[in-house]
Every structure is written in structure tokens, then in C-alpha cells.
Design goal:
33% of the residues are buried. α3 packs antiparallel against α4 and α4 crosses α6. 53% of the residues lie in helices and 11% in strands. α2 links the parallel β2 and β3. By secondary structure, it is of the alpha+beta class. Strands 1, 2, 3, 4, 5 and 6 form a 6-stranded mixed β-sheet that branches.
Length: 241
């Protein structure tokens, strides 16, 4: 009898051990499944999504014009200001208005200019509501002033109606920074960087840099201030072919 009791005792202990192991296994599986059904806890806040805004239209004239002039510029660049005032402005009122030339602006803000990138943002915001020409004129006409103070909004306010200024200010939320690009919260930075990438392929080594296209021909890039008189003569030669 003592031997039989000993065997029973060993069997009981073995069964108890198996039951305990099974319980622990069930508990472990249950905990794993429960954990898999939950999102992992995190204290990090999700990144702020950048609002998608249609590509700003920064052009003058009709796409069907026989000549296309593509200009890479920096709004704080003095040479770009001179090119705009003494070449592009008379060209816009003359050959662009006559349907002979289509002008495409490309942003190429230079790192040496403290407010150039921010000015490009304002121009893009204005272009989004169809006020690019007003914004570009305001930036170049007052380049010496906002280039010193950084108060670009002051000159935008003088160029736009109160309603349009309000729309532009709303679009500029998160973009009022002189450093470029300081964050990914400004939706216009993507378009500015696209222009810069295209310029780097030209390559743009100084601003202004421009390219002329005529009936499938692409001419070598020009650089610096070229007078309207000189460009007009070249355009006339192209148009007479």
C-alpha cells in the first residue's frame, strides 16, 4: 500500500504540473492576442499635414504665343529687379499684350538674401488667387524697402484689395518665416523647390537667368540684365522666320 500511495502521489503532482503549465500557456496566448488588437501607445503627436494647394500660376500672356520666355529670379536680387523694371515690364505691355510672347516665372531664391524665400512665398500665395502680376510688381517696385525691413506684408497690402489681402494672409499661415524652407508647414515651399530643381538642371548660376523657346527650338540660357530693345530685336528676327 505504501508503494501504491507513492505512485498516486507522483501522478497527482505530475497532473497538477501539467495543468499549471497549460494555464500559464493559455494566459500568455491570451495576453499576446489582446496586445495585438491594440494600437501601440505613443506620446508623440502626429505630424501636421500640409494643405494641398493647386500649383500657383506665375505667368503672363497666352500659352499659344509663338515665343516663350522662362525667367528664373529672386525677388531680393537687384539685377532681377532691374530686369523686371526695364525689360519685362515694357515687354508685358508690348509683345505679351500683342500675343507674341508668353512669360513664365520660376522662383530661384538665393541663400544670400535674407527675405528672398519669404517673398517667393508671398508671390505664390498671391498667384494662387490670380494676383501674381500685382504681387510681383509690388515686390520689385519696393525691393529696397522690404529688403531692409522684411515687412513684405506692408507692400502686399498696398497692392491688393483688403479682401484679396485677407485671402493671401490666410494662405500664408505658417509661411511667415525668413528662413527657407524652415518647416514643411508652408504649402508653397514644394512649388518653390520644384522651380529651383528645374533651375539647377539649366543650370542657373546667377539670377536672373532666362531661356527662350520658339517653335520647338530652345536657345542657350541667358544671364543678367538684357534690355528690352535688344530682346525685342532678337524676337523680331525669330518672328520674321
Amino acid at each position: 500500500m505504501p508503494g501504491r500511495q507513492t505512485a498516486r502521489s507522483r501522478r497527482s503532482r505530475r497532473l497538477a504540473g501539467i495543468a499549471c503549465a497549460a494555464a500559464l500557456l493559455i494566459l500568455a496566448v491570451s495576453s499576446t492576442l489582446h496586445a495585438r488588437g491594440r494600437a501601440p501607445a505613443t506620446s508623440e503627436k502626429p505630424a501636421k499635414a500640409v494643405e494641398t494647394i493647386p500649383a500657383p500660376v506665375k505667368t503672363y500672356g497666352s500659352k499659344s504665343a509663338p515665343i516663350t520666355l522662362e525667367v528664373f529670379g529672386d525677388y531680393e536680387c537687384p539685377s532681377c529687379g532691374g530686369f523686371y523694371e526695364y525689360t519685362l515690364r515694357p515687354m508685358i505691355s508690348d509683345y505679351v499684350a500683342a500675343g507674341k510672347v508668353f512669360i513664365v516665372h520660376r522662383d530661384f531664391p538665393l541663400a544670400m538674401h535674407k527675405y528672398g524665400y519669404e517673398a517667393a512665398r508671398w508671390a505664390n500665395a498671391a498667384a494662387t488667387i490670380g494676383k501674381f502680376s500685382e504681387a510681383e510688381a509690388a515686390l520689385y517696385d519696393n525691393q529696397n524697402y522690404w529688403g531692409q525691413s522684411g515687412d513684405i506684408q506692408k507692400y502686399m497690402a498696398a497692392a491688393l484689395s483688403p479682401a484679396d489681402l485677407h485671402r493671401v494672409q490666410k494662405l500664408m499661415t505658417g509661411c511667415e518665416m525668413a528662413v527657407a524652407p524652415a518647416s514643411h508647414s508652408c504649402p508653397f515651399d514644394a512649388y518653390i523647390e520644384q522651380d529651383k530643381a528645374l533651375g539647377n538642371m539649366v543650370p542657373v548660376e546667377a539670377t536672373p537667368t532666362f531661356r527662350i523657346f520658339y517653335k520647338g527650338q530652345k536657345f542657350p540660357a541667358g544671364q543678367g540684365v538684357v534690355s528690352w530693345t535688344v530682346l525685342k530685336q532678337f524676337f523680331d528676327q525669330l518672328l520674321s522666320q
